[in-house]
Amino acid sequence: MTQKILIVAGDAAESLEVLYPYQRLREEGYEVHIAAPTRKTLRFVVHDFEPGFDTYTEKPGYTWPADLAFSDVDPGDYIALVLPGGRAPEYLRNDAELRKIVKAFFDTDKPVAQICHGPLLTAAVDALRGRRVTAYPALELDMQAAGATFQDAEAVVDGTLVSSRAWPDHPGWMREFLTVLRAKAPVS
Length: 188
What we know:
Blueprint: E1 4-8, H1 15-27, E2 31-36, E3 41-48, E4 57-65, E5 68-69, E6 80-83, H2 88-92, H3 96-107, E7 112-115, H4 119-124, E8 132-133, H5 140-145, E9 149-150, E10 155-158, E11 161-164, H6 170-184
Parallel strand pairs: 1-2, 1-6, 2-5, 6-7, 7-11, 8-9
Antiparallel strand pairs: 3-4, 10-11
Pfam families: DJ-1_PfpI
Protein name: DJ-1/PfpI family protein
């Protein structure tokens, strides 16, 4: 039976931060499902960096179907979790079903990959206290308020938690996450 990995997303998730791990993990032989508040076609965004802007810009991105709703997810069916960034985590962290899912992965010490604003979801279930993480640099104070030690690095590994700043860091992020996956939950 193929090992399954769950990616959680919503409208305004960053296109590359959903689709790069989705494709990379499938390439490795994992079955990957995308869950959202409801089973629907999601509208992702593209965050880009432009000269003269103090922060990233946001443009419409790809659309992609969610395989299942959060209420349909059984965390026990999955060996790992991916938390993409974009604006989606800002409102997804308020979803009680999603908080239960995220907490279940930490309670069972399953691998979790988070990037950009994705750590807002782990902070919402108090899973960052005492951990080392990275995130989009503007979230440094949020990570510290959640009890984490923030490191401005391409990828930070703390046990089974692998975090990264943003999509330009994908190679280092997925390299480290795959190292954790191969040790903890190899493709069967």
